[in-house]
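Hi Y.,

Following your request, here is the sequence exactly as I used it, all 595 residues.
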Amino acid sequence: MTAALLYSSTTALALGLIFKYFLNISADIPWAIGGFIGLIPSIKWVLDELKDKQMGSDVLAIFSIVGALAIREFFAAAVISFMLASGRALESWAEGRADFALKSLIDRMPKLANRITKTGQLEVIKIEDVEINNRLLVKSGEIVPVDGIAQETCYLDQSALTGEPMPVLLEKAGSVISGTINAGNAFEMIASGNVSQSTYSGIVTMVRNSRAQSSPNIRLANKWALRFVPITMAMAALTFLLTGDATRTVAVLVVATPCPLILAVPIALVSGMSRATKSGAVIKGGAVLEKLSKAEVVLLDKTGTVTHGGPVITEIVTSSGITHEYALQMAASLDQYSPHVVAKSLVDEAKNRGISLLSASNVVEEHGKEVSGEIDGVLIRVGAAPTDLPSWANLKQPLIVALHINNQLIAIFGLEDPIRSESKKTISDLHKLGVIEIVMVTGDKEETASIVASELGINRVIANSSPETKLNVVHEYRNKVSGSVIVVGDGINDAPALAASDVGIAMGARGASAASEAADVVIIEDSIDRVVSAISIAKLSHSKAMQASIGGMGLALIAMFAAAFNLLTPSQGAIAQEFIDLLAIMWALTTLSSK
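Below is the corresponding structure, written out as tokens. Let me know if you'd prefer a different format.
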């Protein structure tokens, strides 16, 4: 509807100008049609606002167009219609948001499951047909379809749900969570519920409910126009009562049409969003940007947000006579044959150090435990460290990997999820921007989370957090503070909290699509300091929008007085309003270049 309104109002105004200045015939008909083009949707908008118990700038447009048509000021009516159409188009562009959260989550959910029959046959069924106590087979690399109990040892990547970056070794009879990925060999499980009762399905439901609760329904321009409408109506009524001149009254209404609100506000917001995108943050709408400018509380996930989100080698210790380079070369040469995330970390570290990898033979992998093989006739084993370590192998990292050569332990690699270099400064900068409280809400362990929070200067930590816990924390703060509650995360486990917050910011560079689609802001560069840039730009953009709006309204008031004293006709008032719009727009556009 917005595009059709803009096209038709522009065409009517242009045809009138062609008729009058090129064909030398009356332009009344196309301009009158242009006026009606703006009048009809304006009436609908006002009725819709009244149904929602709201009132905004559209009511002034109705009075202006009706008055202009009544006294045959058709050009003024056409200009007002064009301003309405262009303003709506810009606002639609500025505040349009694509809510693909549910689609992203549902698309990730497996559609089929492998059920083992009573006779031991394997049959592929729809996930909806899975029943409690069904025996299922989860193949390597597949997403677990429903919650259940593992019937054998398995190796699961739970990072998308729990935020824990390290893959988890689950023993027999352990609880398997739907939505996790089988990072090891195929394993069997017993379903403990159907798909509607699964953890993953619950997350989808939470995102749906949270998004519905947080959807904005009040246009920014309307909130400010509420203060301007009574002034305009009072001045127009006073003009008519004192002069009895309908033309003056219409002129007052025409110049009072709050186009600096209708145009300058969305332009300032769009400019802010454009600038934020260049800074590595995609803001999904003007209403989001306004809320972002009022940030008061920031809730941060740990893994992949303030940390890098994956295991990285941070220390290597070796037995006497063994160099770090040799140990890493042997371990990485064998691990290059493994798809394991930890193996990839060793290979990446070797490549970063310029260490060449050797060929291995007779490679055998016991998923979740170790990889073994031969290099130049020497037996190599890389995997879990033994319980009793020698004195030289004393490491504090949360994950350690052992290297054995000919069954002799020669090296230990310490891995951890390192804190981003920019995280500490980001916390400090957020406080400078007026953020009162920063809280780390993570699915990671208490000890690990506390160490990270202490290093970054974050006072409150909520560890071992499930999606429900994160959601409850969001509601807690939204009920406590008057400003905006911002959530920053990167995993599916963050999606409900991102959707429920005033503004959800997703670290999207690592491909966490569900989090990105549930969020209002997506950081497209792998750097948390872009959160600071987004909030800073939002504050600037909101400030510019306010300045452009107030300045434009001030000039409009001056023009209203001029019209009341018969210094401006309705048509002249429409032209004057265009100049006011131009000034307001130019000021709004400085958002793109201001520091």
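The CA atoms of residues 446 and 463 lie 5 Å apart.

Thanks again,
Q.
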